[in-house]
Each structure stands twice: as structure tokens, then as C-alpha cells.
Write a structure and sequence with these properties.
Length: about 290
């Protein structure tokens, strides 16, 4: 069964780099049938940003890549920007913890301005280190800055895309309550790189952005939304194809059409309905994208 011609094919979380494939990877995504990308910023240089100008340059590089992708391929790209959670640890080692906290705070506020100016659609990746941190002061600061990120997303009226460890049912609910305490609806807190099926929706359940692995897609396809599909493609020449290749989401959509034709319409959950529920708008149509 062919995919519906009006169905957008959306990768909800990926990274692209001027030092990797960049636009070429997006062209491969387009050739496979992809139409929309959510492009998360990353550090494009080996050193961690040590001043706000470095973060501004990083966000601008993400925006520039988005413009080039759309111009060259017709893929619609939405930018997601924020200081990476682990940046705090590395910056504290270089400039001291108080200065690192001040920088991270300013970078989060800059990300919020980008959303309000419609240069980005979400705050991300935010969160806390998903590994042990020896210094309790850094751990405490990371938690405080995560709460600040949730407040920034609230004020910017946008989702927060979370980078953290795998979550149990109790931890999912705990994060949902934490978002609500910050004034952010739990549904607008999105756990990216989700590798296990989330529980059925509840008032405190956050949203899941699932890695588009075949087995997991098969498991969640009949679940109620909102949920997304992503590759978390890293565009790292040292790790080609990691985490999943950028063409994976359109390939998974074709797999559903070929093997579960009666469930094709379920793909509107990650590609349309979840975006409306979490972001508050529908995927933009573009004649060049075919959506």
C-alpha cells in the first residue's frame, strides 16, 4: 500500500553539521521520502562554549544549515536550540562553577528569545547529566538549571526537549509533575531518545520521541498519542550512521505501509497529531517537500 500523498514524514530529532554530511544527509532523507526535520543544535567545534557569543554563533550555524537544507532540498526544517546540559560540567572546569552557571543561564535565555522571535520552535536539548557527577555542587546546579529551562519553555510557550537517562514509569510521572510545577504542561516536556514504550497517557505523563527502530515502531503504532519518531542522527564522520541513519524514519513509514497497510493512518500520530498536541501547530506544507 502506498503512503498517503498528504502525509508528512517527520524526523523529530536529528543533528547535522557543516563538518559532516550536512545538506547531503538531508538530501538523502528527502530521496527516501522525508519531508520535515526537527534540527537540534550542537557544539560544532571541539571546545565547549565559554561565552554567550559562542552560543549565539552555534545557534546561527544551526539556523544557517536549516536555511540551506530548505533551499537545496525542499525539506522543511525546524530549529531546536539550547545549551547542552553537559556543557555546564565542562565549562565549570575551565571558568569555574559560578561563571559556568551564569553562562548557562544566559544561553537558556537566548534560546527562549529565539523561540519568541520564531527562529526556533523548542528549547533543547535540556536536562541533566545521565551519568554520575562527582561534584555535588555541579549536580545541584544542573538540577536548578533544568528547572530554569522548563521555566524558559513556559515563558516562550514552547516544548522542552529533554536529554536524560532512560525513565521508569515512576520517573516519567515525576518529570511530569516537575514540569507542571514550573508551569509547563507535562505533554510539552518531550523525552528524546526514548528506547522503551511509555505507559498509556495520564495527566502527569510527558511525551515520548521514540528511536525509529523497527521493533519499537511496531510496538507503539497502536498507542494513543502524542508520540514522535526520531533518528537522533549525529552526523559525525567518526561514527557514520549513528545513532540511526537520517533516512530511517521514511523507511519505517514505508515498512508500515508494506507490512501493516491497515495501520498506515496511525502514522498521522507522530507526523501530524503529536505536533499539534505538543507544539500547537501543524507541520508546514511546502510544494517542494511534497507534503
Amino acid at each position: 500500500m502506498p503512503l498517503p500523498v498528504d502525509l508528512p514524514i517527520v524526523d523529530h530529532h536529528c543533528h547535522l553539521s557543516p563538518h559532516g554530511e550536512g545538506v547531503r544527509a538531508a538530501a538523502r532523507f528527502r530521496s527516501a521520502g522525508g519531508t520535515h526535520l526537527f534540527l537540534a543544535t550542537q557544539n560544532y567545534v571541539p571546545d565547549v562554549p565559554l561565552d554567550l557569543e559562542a552560543y549565539r554563533h552555534q545557534f546561527e550555524m544551526t539556523e544557517s544549515l536549516a536555511h540551506r537544507i530548505r533551499a537545496d532540498t525542499g525539506v522543511v526544517v525546524y530549529c531546536v536550540v539550547a545549551p547542552y546540559p553537559v556543557d555546564l560540567i565542562r565549562a565549570a572546569e575551565r571558568i569555574g562553577l559560578p561563571a559556568a552557571i551564569a553562562l548557562h543561564t544566559a544561553a537558556l535565555e537566548l534560546a527562549g528569545r529565539w523561540v519568541r522571535e520564531r527562529r526556533a520552535v523548542a528549547i533543547g536539548e535540556v536536562g541533566r547529566p545521565h551519568f554520575d557527577v562527582a561534584d555535588p555542587r555541579v549536580r545541584s546546579a544542573s538540577e536548578d538549571l533544568f528547572d530554569l529551562a522548563l521555566s524558559v519553555a513556559r515563558d516562550a510557550d514552547c516544548p522542552a526537549i529533554v536529554h536524560c537517562e532512560e525513565l521508569s514509569i515512576e520517573e516519567i510521572a515525576r518529570l511530569g509533575r516537575r514540569a507542571r510545577a514550573a508551569g509547563l504542561p507535562p505533554v510539552r516536556l518531550v523525552k528524546h531518545y526514548a528506547r522503551a514504550r511509555f505507559p498509556v497517557p495520564s495527566p502527569e505523563r510527558i511525551s515520548a520521541s521514540y528511536l525509529a527502530k523497527r521493533e519499537l515502531v511496531g510496538q507503539v503504532l497502536l498507542d494513543p498519542g502524542p508520540w514522535f519518531l526520531e533518528t537522533d542522527f549525529l552526523d559525525d564522520p567518526k561514527r557514520p550512521g549513528a545513532v540511526l541513519d537520517l533516512a530511517t524514519v521514511p523507511r519505517r513509514a514505508r515498512w508500515v505501509a508494506e507490512t501493516r497497510p491497515d495501520q498506515v493512518e496511525r502514522l498521522r500520530i507522530p507526523f501530524e497529531e503529536a505536533i499539534r498536541a505538543v507544539y500547537g501547530w501543524s507541520p508546514e506544507r511546502d510544494e517542494r517537500s511534497g507534503a
